[in-house]
Backbone:
């Protein structure tokens, strides 16, 4: 066919087929539950924002990664780059309607025109919590405690939050901070090179890198550590002072943190910090703010590596087979009964039994119920465990009990 | 401040603040549960597609509403306009990896550059189910039955599915079908006018409109009705043959349906049908397909009008108050205990009790726990019901039991 369109996704964009999507939903549901347990409420913002809302907030390098367009009305618009700047806009836009402090979570995709490479995508999910309108340190420690509770719930044993005080770098131009943030990725030499390239004097660059390693926790970090210990977290196990931690984004002002786990080597699982001056850009008044963002893809990859996700590939629990058109009604009736009992039930609308079993197998449906003329005559059904191959006869009433208890 | 940016959303785009978002999540969770009960598995596709994937699938009028852009690499791209065309692409792209038949649900936003007006938005959520690779009528009836189960679960008493056979219009050019679809909106005279405007002869237009009203159910519709009755649905109550139903989109081939409820007058709550030729555009081979899409905003609006949504404005269940800095630890400890017990708990990180109660009230938190020096001395806490104002003393252990049972 000459008009056939090649079915393809854009580079850096992904489809999530059911076998992956059921795993993603499993993780999102767990994260959401813990966020709500800690008193964070859900918020959603649009995918598209005015370009001026997004530009000049993240830093020079990030601005280049924004998806910016012009719409049919000639408006300059852009796709959500993170969930923090839209939150800052929301706070300013609805300030007098919102409860204060404002604690919200947000789980939506963001878009960045990065060079696609292994594990880096142009569309990816972020899972954020932020507390707006509270200074001091309790909001910071609550966020860290909540994140560590998420990690525990997800099954991580060695998750650790690295913590630093961004004000240590406050006399440094943002472009230099961005360079320091790459310390782990490109090494001391690499960072010194980049600092020089960006205009820092060579000796100054070297001295600065050395000074970072020798720096002690600021009073802020000491206070945070104290509260975290009170919250049941162990220093150097669950959290740790990390003087070289810089975080790439421009808007951070004091506390910054980054989530790691020694069980998974591919870098950070998320990060955050305090950004007390960002909302001012929309509101003209200083509003204190602190938050954290999970990098969902890495979190998922780490969980898969560590086998922390149930090997479920479908949300279907049982397949009801169809023996022949003549017996279709019996199968439909049974499916209705199972669904009424709250059991996720599929029915294969065809009459070849081997095809039906293959379908169940390919999807990973754990149980198949066979109902044919023999079973109907005896008023029973056959329940097949697709993993073990085990098969047993039972009544329809008992079937529901058995499946409910699995 | 001269640099202050006006905090605003684009026309037709919306923020969902927590008090709305908790309601939206309530409805989405219910829909998702029923979709899974009927054996549909989750799928996600990217927000952005190649423009050629989207163009020429929906019809002339719809093509004009596509959000089309050029990315930095000069690729012509567009935002998801519905979830059916991306699904068709997915089927073609992964055909040999997917189980067949393929039953999936998808709950994601779509974008249409419509003229914003009351109840019509440029970004809105769709909730879809589709069954791919099954002809005949059982897939159609399963979809209708599943949708009616959703409506029942959401609390609708008078939901009705209008059903028609698109093949009745098969000799008509798509532009005429689009006109007929407006019968209810613009009336008989309006449709005749539009048909003439679009090139139909005046007499022919009149005769055609009259013929629609007199038409009888096709054999397809009769068969579907029979199965639906077997599935426990009542003709003329739960579903009804509607000869004037046309559906606006080009890709439908035979069965079409549209969801209404007499309790809510603002039109359709969703629609769908069979589109057996769409996947061919990507795959070069006919793959049968049928699906339904809920218009989430109208569904939500109808539910709000009919008071079918719990008046919850926060996911927080209890607020633990803080008496003073000195007693903060006791409050933090109690919050931890409540969270460990699975109770969504917020803590107000300030020490003015009246402010804390105002905060709970503004958010709509149902319970507040007061813990101060008197309570600590007596080893009790005070539990306040924010709705009734009722207050009672209890121990921390009993508190958890009481809250769990609410």
Residues:
């Amino acid at each position: 066919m000459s008009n056939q369109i090649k079915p393809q996704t854009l580079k850096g964009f992904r489809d999530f087929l059911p076998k992956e999507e059921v795993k993603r939903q499993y993780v999102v549901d767990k994260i959401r539950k813990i966020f709500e347990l800690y008193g964070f409420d859900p918020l959603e913002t649009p995918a598209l924002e005015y370009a001026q809302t997004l530009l000049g907030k993240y830093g020079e390098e990030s601005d280049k990664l924004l998806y910016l367009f012009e719409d049919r009305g000639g408006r300059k618009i852009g796709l959500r780059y993170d969930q923090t700047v839209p939150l800052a806009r929301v706070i300013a836009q609805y300030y007098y309607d919102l409860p204060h402090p404002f604690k919200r979570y947000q789980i939506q995709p963001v878009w960045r025109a990065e060079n696609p490479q292994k594990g880096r995508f142009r569309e990816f999910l972020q899972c954020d919590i932020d507390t707006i309108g509270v200074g001091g340190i309790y909001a910071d420690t609550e966020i860290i405690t909540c994140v560590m509770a998420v990690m525990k719930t997800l099954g991580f044993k060695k998750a650790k939050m690295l913590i630093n005080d961004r004000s240590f770098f406050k006399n440094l131009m943002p472009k230099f901070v961005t360079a320091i943030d790459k310390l782990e990725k490109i090494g001391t030499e690499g960072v010194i090179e980049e600092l020089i390239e960006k205009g820092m004097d060579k000796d100054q660059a070297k001295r600065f890198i050395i000074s970072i390693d020798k720096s002690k926790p600021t009073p802020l970090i000491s206070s945070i550590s104290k509260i975290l210990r009170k919250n049941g977290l162990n220093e150097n196990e669950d959290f740790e002072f990390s003087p070289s931690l810089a975080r790439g984004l421009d808007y951070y002002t004091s506390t910054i943190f980054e989530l790691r786990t020694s069980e998974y080597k591919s870098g950070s699982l998320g990060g955050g910090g305090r950004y007390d001056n960002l909302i001012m850009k929309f509101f003209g008044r200083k509003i204190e703010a602190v938050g954290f963002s999970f990098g969902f893809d890495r979190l998922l990859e780490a969980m898969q590596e560590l086998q922390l996700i149930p090997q479920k590939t479908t949300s279907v629990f049982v397949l009801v087979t169809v023996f022949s058109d003549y017996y279709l009604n019996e199968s439909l009736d049974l499916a209705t009964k199972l669904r009424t009992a709250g059991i996720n039930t599929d029915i294969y609308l065809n009459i070849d039994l081997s095809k039906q079993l293959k379908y169940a197998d390919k999807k990973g449906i754990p149980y198949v119920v066979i109902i044919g003329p023999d079973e109907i005559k005896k008023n029973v059904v056959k329940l097949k465990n697709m993993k073990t191959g085990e098969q047993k006869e039972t009544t329809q009433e008992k079937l529901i009990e058995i499946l409910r208890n699995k």
